[in-house]
Please model this.
Amino acid sequence: MLQEIRQVLRLVVLMSKQGRRHGSGSTGGLLILLWDEEAGAQRLNCTVAAAGSWCSGVEIKALQLDLKGRMFPHVSPSLEPDPEDLIPFTELHGSLRLLLSFQMKDARHWPSDWQSDVEAVLQAFSLANAGIQIHLKLKFAQKTSVRDFRAKIKAKVSRADQPPLLLDVSCPEQKRWFLSKPHGWAKRASWCQGGHPVDGGRLPLGIPPQAMDGGLLGDLSVRLVTLLHPCVLQYPNMPTELKSIKVLVYNPCNIPVSGPSGFFQTLPSSMDCQHLGLRGLQCPAHKDPEFRVGTVFTTEQWENEKKCDDEEQESSHLPVQQSLLLFLLLQHRNPFCSHLSDFVAADMLIEHHLEEILCNNKPAVMAAIRTEIGNAMKAQNQRKKQQEKLNSAAEVILSSTMSIVSCSSNVDFRNACFDLMKVADTHALSSHLGESLRRVMSWRFLPVGRCYSTQMEENLLHHGSTKSEI
Amino acid sequence: MLGKQISCAMESGSTQFFFLIDKLRIQLLNSIESATEKDYFQEEISPFDSGVGLQMSSGHSVTTVKSNCLASVTKFAQILKILSVIYRLVQSNSYATKRDVYYNNTQLFGSQRSVDTIVDDISCMLKVSRRALHVMATSKGLIAGDLCYLEEDGTRIDCRSSSAAVSVSSNVSGIRNIVSSAKFVMIVEKDATFQRLLNDNFCRKLSPCIMITGKGVPDVNSRLMVKKLWDTLQIPIFALVDADPHGFEIMCIYKYGSVAMSFEAHSLTVPSVMWLGLLPSDLQRLMVPKHSLLPLTRRDENKLNSLLKRPYFASQPQWQKEMELMQQSKVKAEIQSLADIAPDFLSSIYLPNKLRYGGWL
Model:
């Protein structure tokens, strides 16, 4: 089922690329409707609809002929979805450029969490094609569910020698842990809601003999782009720790491909983790929803940490856990490819031989990945050094202040100090002052022009008065 | 007028000379008092007061040091550390030098300069003298001549030895029982010149007098000592500096103070200091050999231009004339250049004539 959806996406993307007029846009909508004709039916139908400038080059008749010819034996033009399901889509994105319906294989043989698999693929597709709003509607077993995939924040990554890439850089909800428990030392602190992609450039790849024998020719390369979430650029003193690295591989149509698991299994051993400043990498065995597409590596430190419910511990003492998204975007150029079928074949060959391609270029690919991870780690290591300097100074500040207060024989002065910090004695003063000082240091806020900031709700903390005194 | 009288008195005998010096002293006192009265209570506080020198204007010297900024957090910690050291010193009524404070935690402070700067900043912030912080500077100045006094701990200091100078006290404010019959004090810019004069028995030749040097840019204790001598003895204070912008600036520090210590101007400046030499006009008058003269460097010229813009010259037109002469001639000279005229020219001819015939500005 995923394969069919990928096939349709591939064709739509390739057709739109081919037929795209110069200057046409890359925005629009894609509707994937999965529905059953009658209750209890074992077969699901799939309708794919597209509208907007991104598919302006698509010719529906040509698409149907191709599909009918080789890919979708179950394509049935007589299958028509409920027009009511299409109305909201056309209202939003305009008239349809594509409407294609086909029947899926027997749903009884699908994995139980197939729905999550579909969502994960579409989510990953949306990441690298942020201009397209994807609507997934499931209508079966008398239940309807709708899921939209749209980029709240987009960033264009462009280079002179590269096609422009529009990425969804919005910080995922599950990564914005700090928003649910704002410490908000800065009353008007704002958080960057997005990320800042870093283009690692293009790496030429050699085509392995097996792929060549299969007919894959031309120039093959991979473009690496990294994205770190959440962004803490506006908090220069905030310590960070890389929790996970997720590698997403895209075929030349910018469609996420699964695997190659064999190649990426060797990644931890190929990384000089100590040199990078990483505390080891490992590939978890469990399959959380986040991990369905792409390969995810977690750092050993994250694996060992238990979730802490203690609010005391969740204070600024913990570094911000960041995740690195590494896009590997395959690119292919063959001057002898002219027909749509040539492009489709080449694309499918690349997917089929992906493992061999990457293995054939292992040293270069690993070196490139190492470089990108290293660049991401540089910022973290720099923050660590800064944190050491701040902590060292904080110790001196704390000991000097306590020395004065402890040695003072002036009762009024001592009481004033206790009252200001809302403590009863010097012991409590010391711990409270230390904690406050570390919070003030860690949560220093400096607005950064390129961050996607929204104002936090004003946070009137019970600690607010303490902060101003420090 | 008085200068001519003094020169005539030198011919008739030394008694008359010193009588006239005393008269000059009284004149100076009167002029300072009137200048102080006129300038000190001005409605508008200006940075320069001819009666005091360079003063700190309130509201213009605020610096913010943040504890959460990486660039300043170390300084923040250093300041608090020094504050805690000072607190302990004041509590225990003990004293420490700035060097002692530095060695308290060399890793934190990094350099002696950091400690020095922060101690001055704290002094300025709390609006107290450094002495009140119980942190003393190690003195680098030397003093010699007709002077005896008691240190705070009771040690008797006699500066009358002809062969060796005495280090300026590190606790000038604690000095008491000053005894001196000196008729004037001469501030010498450089240690080399000071030693030369000491070797030439200058203090005996033109006795009674006091010589003091800060060995270049004077430290606070040397300045305090000059101020103390002026406050106690009320005798003329002359400055003997090189005929170059740097020497002139050093003289101005004694007379008008420095920007860095402007918050303590009242306790450090002696506006009555007079410029004895080496004047730029002396170079022409004495026909100092050309090979002894040095061309002004670019840096000298820039400094000279900067000095000419300072507010000092409004009350010192003759000084301005001398600086303009230096600017036009584009040459400078050290005091040592007088040795090219004759080996003992400085102590045997130049200085005695200058003092006898009123050759000061």
